[in-house]
């Protein structure tokens, strides 16, 4: 059997492969060779083979058959073997494989080995991948090494101990004695570093340990002081700062120890101030230290002067070129803005500048912080900036920003006009992003600003002329026009500078009707517009036009609109019997939803009961006969429900049949949809339609009806009075 | 804190892979691919802190990386300092970036010292040695030593121990360094093999 090829040989061979397939073939060939070599139990070449295996493993090929070999290498006496064996174990094994437990004995022996590098290897391996069982078995050895004077081993033992504690927290107690001298004066450099890491881990995991280690605060303070005061030390200097990472570690431990404890916090106040003022900030390393200092100051019970110092550091960070630092500063300021409000206020302009930052995350933070800083004194200035931000920010932000602006305006508006103007500005610039629930709130606001009604409606109308695409704006504007349309056309304005708006009634109605038909309008918007138009019938004089528009929507597919229109019409028919010649036209098209919008009313009325009121013939002429049948609703005796039955005795159908009715003013009438608009010839069927009459004053029921239909190609129209209602129908 | 340290070249070929948390083999390869994909899209000059992919422990980890000539050095960092997750990533961000950048620098400087002007080839042919050096810098995902001279000294002593034992694994190391000094064409610094094209300039000093 020829000697297995060397690692570099294998690497060179693999690199000549032109394709993935070729590489795989080479690897497989070599794996086969390695396997045979393993089977031969050859000690000489084992480490070479495992080295090759690790290389192949890095490329993504399976290497598990080498796991046992690693263990054999670890058990070998040669350092070379152990080195590669331990590396192999760390790369190929983990606690999920039972095999790993076989390492325990070897590691135990190696932890006590005469050569420190072997001890180091075993500490490293245990500290990387030791399972809970292994840790339990070997914790004692680690603890011993924690007390050694050998600094190389001590630092490894410290990190290994951290791993042991993470795996088996109950073992923490075991390391307590060894921690006594961890921070002693003799130690420096990495021992201190890893010791502080160990202490931090213990304090984080156990409140008891935390209390126990509070007494270390003076020592930690001393070490930190030495670091800052000491001169240049090339060994641990980074960018002119002495061992910055040890400083940071100590600051973190101090944070944990000082939190919630007055004495500890007091003991560290001075050193924190010193670090904060003396640290060189030209490089990031200095900034990292400063930031840790800030975090510590914020977490412990520090005096207010110190807190102000910390916030000022954060304020300076906002001007840093590194966006990570700016982001981190904004986040921290946001956390402390409630507790240290005044101190943060001093940096308001810098924070507001961050609204113009290029980075999206920074902009968001700056926005949140800006809203937190708004108060009665700065509202005007801040709102300017925030509105400008609203104009230019990403769509993702606009909804939140708009909401924030509304909230701030509500709390701190210096005047009603300012408030309305601000609201207007938001609606016009970010109208589509405003939340749905803002619309009723804004309407409420406008209602309450009684002295601003004319101004508001004029401004809103003007905005509508420019743009009808932003639904919340359109809805609020529609509502306002409906409510204050008279103020709009009158041109009066409460403000000294009236808005130049020439609004004639017809123009206003044009605008509102435009909304109804526009594709841009949502159903909700249409409802607002229709309602506004209807309201204007009491304020404008062009009532006819309004009625026309409204009646179109009486059979709208949109149930909402239909309901409103029908209700409107029902009220309007009161005028009929007052001698008004104009009769409202109800379209002949049969609505697609036969259960019309008024159906709910029917439900509300509860059960209908046939009360034995005799039917009557209301009309009988030219072959068209209309009969009325009556029902009275039980819970509401004031409502009479009349069903008309129209029949046709002629030999030709009556098509496009429309039945209309009107009642005196003291009544209210509601006409539901007819069953059809064709009355079949020769009594072959009937058209039925339901009329509901509300008669609260119990007056004698009278009705005027109008009939239109087409018969044999000619249109027919007739008017009639119906006076022969049975008394039971209205008493 | 450090979940993984990855070194790969501009084509995504792994040069050193070290995970400090268990992942199955295929997962490891996927992480390498995904990390390469994320990192190779970025500008070289931009500082190097970016969201990690989805594979390592969810969104709570970040990648800190540096691009040296043909190699990417990537540290995958966990959100928490300790496994208890007491400190959140934002607070740790600044520190992690600084520490990892620094540790990376120390690592590369050490490599440079140990290999005499290190280049990608050295990493390719001495993967195990690179691991040994790394072991003296980072242990169990935590920073062990940042003093370059100390690290170099420890590594040299251990290498000497290996050499003194003789044996076959030492031989290739000696041979390679000898060959390097002789400047034989067998190990050129520019290699064109099919679609693998590697320029290996020396890494700039820091």
TrEMBL record, chain A:
Can you tell me where the transmembrane regions are? none
Supply one GO CC term from the record: AP-1 adaptor complex
Q: Which PROSITE patterns match?
A: GAE
> What topology in the membrane does the UniProt record assign?
Peripheral membrane protein
User: Would the keyword Transport turn up in this protein's UniProt record?
Assistant: yes
Q: Which family does it belong to?
A: Belongs to the adaptor complexes large subunit family.
Is the keyword Secreted assigned to this protein? no
What broad taxonomic lineage does this protein's source fall under? Eukaryota, Metazoa, Chordata, Craniata, Vertebrata
Lineage top rank: taxon = Eukaryota
Q: Which residues form the signal peptide?
A: none
Q: Name one GO biological process term.
A: vesicle-mediated transport
Q: Which residues belong to any copy of the GAE domain?
A: 611-726
Subcellular localization is given as: Cytoplasmic vesicle membrane; Endomembrane system; Golgi apparatus
> Major location, coarse class?
membrane
What does the UniProt keyword field contain? Answer: Cytoplasmic vesicle, Golgi apparatus, Membrane, Protein transport, Transport
- The name of this protein is AP-1 complex subunit gamma
Automatic annotation (TrEMBL), chain B:
Q: Report the GO terms under cellular component.
A: AP-3 adaptor complex; cytoplasmic vesicle membrane; Golgi apparatus
Per UniProt, subcellular location reads as: Cytoplasmic vesicle membrane; Golgi apparatus
InterPro entries documented for this protein:
AP_complex_ssu, AP_mu_sigma_su, APS3, Clathrin_sm-chain_CS, Longin-like_dom_sf
* Function recorded in the entry: Part of the AP-3 complex, an adaptor-related complex which is not clathrin-associated. The complex is associated with the Golgi region as well as more peripheral structures. It facilitates the budding of vesicles from the Golgi membrane and may be directly involved in trafficking to lysosomes. In concert with the BLOC-1 complex, AP-3 is required to target cargos into vesicles assembled at cell bodies for delivery into neurites and nerve terminals.
| Family note | Belongs to the adaptor complexes small subunit family.
**Record's superkingdom?**
Eukaryota
Asked whether the keyword Transport is assigned, the reply is yes
Broad class of where this protein is predominantly found: membrane
Name of the protein: Adaptor related protein complex 3 subunit sigma 2
Q: Name one GO biological process term.
A: Golgi to vacuole transport
Give residue ranges for domain AP complex mu/sigma subunit.
1-93, 103-161
Keywords assigned by UniProt? Cytoplasmic vesicle, Golgi apparatus, Membrane, Protein transport, Transport
Q: What membrane topology does the annotation report for this chain?
A: Peripheral membrane protein
């Amino acid at each position: 059997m020829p000697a297995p090829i060397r690692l570099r040989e294998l690497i060179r061979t693999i690199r000549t492969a032109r394709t993935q397939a070729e590489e795989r073939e080479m690897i497989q060939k070599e794996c086969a060779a390695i396997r045979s070599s393993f089977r031969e139990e050859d000690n000489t070449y084992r480490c070479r083979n495992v080295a090759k295996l690790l290389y192949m493993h890095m490329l993504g090929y399976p290497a598990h058959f080498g796991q046992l070999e690693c263990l054999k290498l670890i058990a070998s006496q040669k350092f070379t073997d152990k080195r590669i064996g331990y590396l192999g174990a760390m790369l190929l094994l983990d606690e999920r494989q039972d095999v790993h437990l076989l390492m325990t004995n070897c590691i135990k022996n190696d932890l006590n080995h005469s050569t420190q590098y072997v001890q180091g290897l075993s500490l490293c391996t245990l500290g990387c991948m030791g399972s809970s069982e292994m840790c339990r078995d070997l914790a004692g050895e680690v603890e011993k090494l924690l007390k050694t004077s050998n600094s190389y081993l001590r630092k490894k033992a410290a990190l290994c101990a951290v791993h042991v504690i993470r795996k088996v927290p109950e073992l923490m107690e075991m390391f307590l004695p060894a921690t006594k001298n961890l921070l002693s004066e003799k130690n420096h450099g990495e021992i201190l570093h890893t010791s502080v890491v160990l202490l931090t881990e213990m304090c984080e995991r156990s409140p008891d340990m935390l209390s126990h280690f509070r007494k270390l605060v003076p020592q930690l303070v001393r070490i930190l002081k030495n670091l800052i005061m000491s001169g240049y030390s090339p060994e641990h200097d980074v960018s002119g700062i002495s061992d910055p990472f040890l400083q940071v570690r100590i600051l973190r431990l101090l944070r944990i120890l000082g939190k919630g404890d007055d004495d500890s916090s007091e003991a560290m106040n001075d050193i924190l101030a010193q670090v904060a003022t003396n640290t060189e900030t030209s490089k990031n390393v200095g900034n990292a230290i400063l930031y840790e200092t800030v975090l510590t100051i914020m977490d412990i019970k520090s005096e207010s002067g110190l807190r102000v110092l910390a916030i000022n550091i954060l304020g300076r960070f906002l001007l840093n070129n590194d966006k990570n630092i700016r982001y981190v500063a904004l986040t921290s300021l946001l956390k402390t803005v409630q507790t240290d409000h005044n101190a943060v206020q001093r940096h308001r302009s810098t924070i507001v500048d961050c609204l113009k930052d290029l980075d999206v995350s920074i902009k968001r933070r700056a926005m949140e912080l800006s809203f937190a800083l708004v108060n009665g004194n700065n509202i005007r200035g801040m709102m300017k900036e925030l509105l400008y931000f609203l104009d230019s920010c990403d769509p993702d932000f606009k909804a939140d920003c708009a909401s924030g602006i509304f909230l701030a305006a509500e709390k701190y508006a210096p005047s009603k006009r300012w408030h309305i103007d601000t609201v207007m500005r938001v609606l016009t610039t970010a109208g589509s992003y405003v939340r749905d629930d803002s619309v009723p709130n804004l309407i409420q606001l406008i209602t309450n600003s009684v002295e601003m009604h004319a101004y508001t409606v004029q401004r809103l109308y003007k905005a509508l002329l420019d743009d009808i695409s932003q639904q919340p704006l359109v809805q609020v504007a529609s509502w306002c026009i409906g409510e204050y349309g008279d103020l709009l056309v009158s041109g009066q304005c409460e403000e000294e500078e009236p808005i130049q708006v020439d609004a004639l009634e017809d123009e206003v109605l044009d605008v509102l009707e435009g909304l109804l038909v526009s594709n841009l309008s949502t159903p909700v918007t249409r409802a607002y517009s229709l309602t506004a138009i209807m309201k204007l019938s009491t304020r404008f004089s062009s009532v006819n036009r309004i009625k026309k528009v409204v009646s179109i929507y009486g059979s709208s597919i949109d149930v909402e609109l239909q309901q409103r229109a029908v209700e409107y019409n029902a009220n309007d028919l009161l005028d009929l019997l007052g001698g008004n010649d104009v009769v409202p036209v109800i379209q002949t098209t049969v609505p697609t939803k036969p259960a019309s919008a008024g159906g709910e009313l029917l439900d509300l009325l509860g059960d209908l009961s046939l009360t034995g009121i005799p039917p009557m013939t209301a009309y009988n002429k030219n072959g068209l006969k209309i009969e009325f049948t009556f029902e009275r609703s039980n819970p509401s005796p004031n409502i009479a429900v009349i069903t008309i039955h129209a029949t046709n005795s002629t030999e030709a159908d009556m098509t496009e049949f429309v039945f209309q009715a009107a009642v005196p003013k003291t009544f209210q009438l509601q006409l539901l949809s007819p069953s059809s608009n064709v009355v079949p010839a020769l009594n072959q069927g009937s058209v039925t339609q339901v009329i509901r009459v509300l008669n609260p004053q119990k007056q004698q029921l009278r009705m005027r009806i109008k009939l239109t239909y087409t018969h044999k190609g000619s249109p027919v129209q007739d008017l009639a009075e119906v006076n022969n209602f049975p008394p039971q129908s209205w008493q | 804190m450090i979940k993984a340290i990855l070194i790969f070249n501009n084509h995504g070929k792994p040069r050193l892979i070290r995970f400090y948390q268990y992942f199955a083999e295929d997962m490891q390869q996927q992480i390498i691919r995904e990390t390469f994909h994320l990192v190779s899209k970025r500008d070289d000059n931009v500082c190097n802190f970016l969201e990690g992919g989805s594979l390592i422990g969810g969104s709570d980890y970040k990648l800190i990386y540096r691009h040296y000539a043909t190699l990417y050095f990537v540290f995958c960092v966990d959100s928490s300092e300790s496994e208890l997750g007491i400190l959140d990533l934002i607070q740790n961000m600044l520190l992690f970036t600084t520490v990892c950048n620094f540790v990376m620098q120390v690592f590369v400087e050490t490599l440079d010292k140990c290999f005499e002007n290190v280049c990608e080839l050295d990493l390719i042919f001495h993967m195990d040695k690179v691991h040994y050096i790394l072991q003296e810098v980072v242990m169990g995902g935590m920073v062990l030593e940042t003093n370059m001279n100390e690290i170099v000294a420890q590594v040299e002593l251990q290498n000497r121990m290996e050499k003194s034992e003789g044996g076959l694994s030492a031989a290739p190391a000696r041979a390679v360094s000898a060959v390097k000094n002789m400047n034989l064409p067998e190990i050129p610094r520019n290699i064109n093999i099919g679609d693998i094209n590697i320029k290996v300039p020396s890494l700039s000093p820091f």
